[in-house]
Every structure is written in structure tokens, then in C-alpha cells.
Glycoside hydrolase family 39 (Emticicia oligotrophica), 559 residues
Amino acid sequence: MKKAYFLSILIAIFRLSFAQEATKTTIQIDLNKKVGEMSTMWAWFGADEPNYAYMKDGKKLLTELSQLSPVPVYFRAHNMLTSGHDTLTMKWGSTNVYTEDANGKPIYDWTVVDKIFDTYRERGIKPVAQFSFMPEALSIKPQPYEHKWKPGMPYNEIYKGWTFPPKDYKKWADLVYAWVKHSVERYGKAEVETWYWELWNEPNIGYWSGTVEEYCKLYDYTADAAKRALPTIRIGGPETTGPSWSKAADFLKTFLTHCESGTNYVTGKVGSPLDFITFHAKGAPKIVDGHVQMNVGTQLRDISEGFRIVTSYAKFKNLPIIIGESDPEGCAACGMKTNPSNAYRNGTMYSSYTAASFARKYALADYFKANLLGAVSWSFEFENQPYFYGFRDLATNGIDKPVLNVFRMYGMMSGNRVEVKGNQNYTFTMVRDSSVRKKADIDALASKDQRSAAVMVWHYHDDDLKAEDATVEIDLRGFPAQQVNFKHYRIDNENSNSYEVWKKMGSPENPTAEQISILEKAGQLALLTSPSYLKLTNGTLKLNFKLPRQGVSLLRFDW
């Protein structure tokens, strides 16, 4: 009896040990095997509301974005040419650049545009300068012009007179020429040459009330005028919505074919100048059985199809690609109270989604040999709104959200991306084709520079449900040193998470000065453990740790 009892105990221990070993995710990293450049394609951001840039919280966030990136951040904004003076309406903005006198003579006023770009430049940020939208005095159907949209209203309520083609293409071209010329005079030729200039936003849906042919015509007039003002300017388009949607793909291909072999509406020659190509990619969260279920696969399929289309053009396959908006879904200004499926935005689900999806953007670009220059996170901030209302933003009332700390992590990764292998549950094609619906996605992205290495590890799942912590083993090799300084940064419910701290305070609508100070500190990227020196064995190192569901770790090594 005793022998049988002890044997059963041993079998139980073995089974438990085996089960734990089987659920462990082992990630093997070879720092000597380069797979690509650790580009800073993540250091791109944007917003519908250009005027927020020079407001209190806008300035603060722009400063933080600049500080977290080792290279200049690029910022893309709509409404740079929109008429009017209202700067606080969501999904709106205005500069009143263009008006006409009683005789129809153009009047240019660069005051507000300069204020926006000066704010960028003071922080070392560079604009993706957008020729949008149609000034009221130029629109073929100007009234009604300004929308009155608010969260919860139908999205198509925003499409008004600013979406229409110009009544005079020459006057539009003159406006383009004047803006570029003014920018060169104000900021210098060398500076403006580093910017990216583009025409419009999502012209295949309501943002453009003309035809695809009229968009191509407007592009020709825009590119010709911009190149006359500055021959070395970088201009591109068309910023269409997700290419996995057939109508969006058709618009993108029509535009590219026009630029490749169509008759130019201005010069009459073949083709149009094109320096970079843009399209958008969005996910599709929904409520399932009372919880948020993300769909990272939908966003990755947009990117995959966009890369496939662009690289199918021999003339354009090597051009830089900017994913002009690359997000978990489509409406930054739709808060979680009016759109419950957006309840992922305040907590760690947004940060783990961001870590997992950006890693797959690198992989898709490698797969298609696409020249991915930037992936714009269409998330900034909304001025004078309730704390943690659930907008798709990086900060709320000057308090950084967990997602911003993922970009701080990316800012500590440099050099080359290196090989990551192991017993992970998903390849990048599996995530693209099926999203993350069964087992969790526990994986890593690793980089190595001359005197540092970094490993970002995430524990992501599309379903916002509680689960057991993941057991992760990191097996590194290829260190050119005998000792490294090690730092472990973490984003989870207990670390780098202002939202959880705010909830523990009782979710105050008007935090005190002391509470704001605590929240600001909680919004910064935090170390999980104190820095330490680790000795290596033949350039190898093994680390084990637990990673909560929707958590993200960054392991940083310096020597």
C-alpha cells in the first residue's frame, strides 16, 4: 500500500511538472542572426484635430513623443486647409488659410498653419503636411460646410462642403504653390525637404465627394504646383482605406496606374510624380458575450493586401510606404460610452495589441519586401474631455495611458532586428489569417545594437478576459560581453498603468492636484525590478518570468 501511495504521488508530481513545462513559452533569440533593420516606423502619429497641437495638453504630449523617440517623430493631421475658426470640435479643425475678396481674388493667411508647425518644430517633430480639406471659398458645393458631429451620432454626419472638388483647379494649385513656397521661406529648403506632403484623406469614402478620376486630377494639379514651388519636395498619396476591401483596392490601383501610365491632367504627359505611397489599415473590435473581442487579423490583412498591391507595380515596388492610419479600429473620437466595443482603450489590452501588431508589420514588410517607412498611430489627445472617457488617445488630460509606454519601449530598441524562435503558438501569417482566438499570442521582438540589446515580450489575446499568467523562458545567445546591465520594464495592471491607479482612487471626475501628480507618475514606464548586472556564460543568458495576460515586458541589456 505504501509503495502504491508513493508511486501515485510521484506520478502526480511528474504530471504537474510536465503540464507546467508544456505550457511554458520558450523564446530563443540569437543576437548574431539579423533579420532586418529595427526601423523607427512606429514613430508616426496623427489626429483629425490639428489645433490641439498648440493647446496645453497637446504641447505636453508632443514633447513626450519627441522625447521617447531616438529619431524625429512625424505627425500627420487633417483639416490643414479647412475654413473657419472653431478649434475644439471633435473630428474637426480649421486654419482659415484661404478666403477670397469681393472680386474673387485669393487671400492667404498662414497664421494658424504656422502656429501648428511652429509647435511641431519647437519639439523637433516633423509634419506629414496634408493638402486638406477644401476651403469653403473653393468648394463646388460649400453649404453646409462645417459639421456638428458628436460621439454617438452617425459617422456620415461629418461629410459636408469641405469634401468636394474645387470650383477652380488653378486656384487650388495656386494655393498649394503658395503654401509650399511660404514653408520654404519660413523654415528653410533643407528642412522642408525632410517633410512628407500628401493629398487628402480616405478619398474612396465620404471624405471625398468627387470621383476617383477627379481625385487623380486634383493630385496632378497638387503635385505639379508643389514641385514647381520646391522641385525636391516629397509628395504622395492616396491615403485610401483598407486595401482588403475591394472598392478601396480598386481606388488604390486606379491611382497607382494613373501615376504610372495615365495622362497627366496638367502636363499632358505620361504619368504623375509619386515619391511615396499611402493607405490605411484598421482592426474591428466587437462585443462578444459581454466582453470586448479585438480583431488584429483584420488590420493585418489590410496591410498585407496593401503591400501586395504596391509591390506588384514594377515602377513603384521600392517606393516608401506609409500606412497613414494603422489602428485597432476606425474612430478615435468614438468613446467607449457611445461605442462599448472601444472599451479596450484605457487599459493594457491596447498596449499588448500594439506590441503584437507592430511586430507583425515588420514581418509582413519583410515577407513582401515592402519598403515600410511609417505606420501612423491615429491617436493623440482630446482637449478638455472627461478623464479616461475611452477615446483612442495616448493621454487623457495630460495623464499618459498604458499604450504610450509601448512606444517608450520601442524607443529603446535600435540597430537590427534579430532572430526569434521557440514554441510560440502563432506565426505572423496565422495572426494575419485567423487573428488570436484560441491560444494566447505569447511572442517577442528582439533587437541588437553595438552596445545594447532589447527584447519586447507580449501576452496578447483578442478576448478581453482574465487568464493565468504566462510562464516565459527567454534563451539568449550571441552577447559580445561577459557581463550585462539588465533592466526589466513592464506594462500590466500593477505597472506603468495610470488607468488602474485612477480606478483605485474611485475614478474621480476632477482629480486633486495631489491625485494628478500621482497619476502622472503612474503613467510613466516603470521597472518591474531594480537594475542588475548579470554574468554570461559563453555569451549566453537564460531568464524566466511570469507575464500577465495583456502584459508587455521589455528586457534591456547594455554592455
Summary: The chain is about 30% helix and 25% strand.
